[in-house]
Design brief:
three-stranded antiparallel sheet, mainly alpha, Arc Repressor Mutant, subunit A, 3 strands, 2 domains
Length: 176
């Protein structure tokens, strides 16, 4: 392998992610495969002067595939930010409604687990409140130690519980 190719590969490995490089390679191959023959003939005849066949279409495809990969990466970041700004608050509101619709005993156990670093040990078969919270998907079993089990608040519901504890004065007055 020539030294300049190794230098390009080392530069790409150092300055860009592997995912970006792989997507760049895939988009490069797709551009080469689906490039119209007339466009390749135009680049070969008009711009290169006929000296190096297919050099300009390959160089053109490399540049275009890089920009396609870059804009898709930036677009994916924008879509992720937009999702976080629009959909996450809606989901948190729905989960808060689910938590606030729990009966007092279930809510008390949930807030007890939240106040003790989101993890608590209970007996699985005896406590109906814990089993109902698990069936609702609010708690999850993370470890089973014989007759005792360790439960944790599901990550989906953690922000909703934090929001309730911090901003709901009625809950704060009643349970804390």
């Amino acid at each position: 392998m020539p030294n300049w190719i190794e230098a390009v590969i080392a530069y790409l490995k150092q300055n860009t992610s592997l995912r970006f490089n792989m997507f760049w390679l895939v988009s490069f191959v797709v551009l080469l495969v689906f490039m119209p023959k007339e466009f390749i003939d135009f680049l070969n005849s008009g711009l290169s002067g006929g000296g190096y066949q297919n050099l300009l279409p390959i160089l053109f495809s490399i540049g275009v595939s890089f920009f396609i990969s870059y804009f898709i990466r930036v677009g994916a970041r924008w879509i992720n930010k937009l999702y976080q700004l629009t959909v996450d608050p809606i989901l948190i509101r729905k989960r808060k409604k689910i938590i606030l619709s729990l009966d007092d005993q279930d809510l008390m156990y949930l807030l007890l687990i939240f106040s003790q670093n989101q993890e608590r040990t209970f007996r699985w078969g005896i406590n109906e409140n814990i089993s109902s919270l698990c069936k609702a998907g609010i708690l999850k079993l993370i470890r089973y130690d014989g007759e005792n089990s360790v439960f944790q608040i599901n990550n989906k519901y953690l922000l909703a519980v934090q929001d309730i504890v911090m901003f709901n004065q009625e809950i704060r007055a009643k349970y804390f």
